[in-house]
Amino acid sequence: MKPKKPYHKENLRQDLIDAGREYVRINGHQGLSIRMLAQQVGVSPGAPYHHFPDRRAFLLALAIDQFEGLLQEASAKAEDGLSAVDVVKSRAMNFVRFALDNPHMLELMYESDLTRPEVAPQLQHYQELSHQSGADSIRRCLPDINEKEAGLRNIGLWTSIYGLVSMINKGIIRPFDDGRYSIEEICDWVVDRAVGSALAA
Fold this sequence. Notes:
Elements: H1 12-27, H2 34-41, H3 55-78, H4 84-101, H5 103-110, H6 121-141, H7 147-169, H8 183-198
């Protein structure tokens, strides 16, 4: 007789988030189920519901976990002795690397049922935090501009960057001329110009 799987497990919430992150990274979020994750982390099918009332709540928590990670990395860069300009460039390239390494997670965060037809309020909060953090970084480079101008410049910058990674992930932008232009070179060029435009006097 097989022993019953435990209902509770220390750090179960984080174990589920970790397992869900890896599943989404490889497979996307569409096929993810709470029951499958419970089996993967070795608990009873009902145990995850102690932390997440339903699948949508779990996906929302997973997306928020990724937003928090990106914001923490951005904050760390600002405290890492980089110049204000280098912080903006580094943040932009960090997002590009994340987006290209994690296209399925990017979809969950920005182009899933969590954002359509309306953005989930909790997710909107983190999107706004990300925007404000970016605008603040621009103002540190250009202290004479007002908050609205910084916000518009940040929107312009991230429109370029998000458009870039979306087109790469969809295969619209790819190495051209038999690899003469690599994806890395394309990203470096576009990010450098987008940041330069955002920080132009």
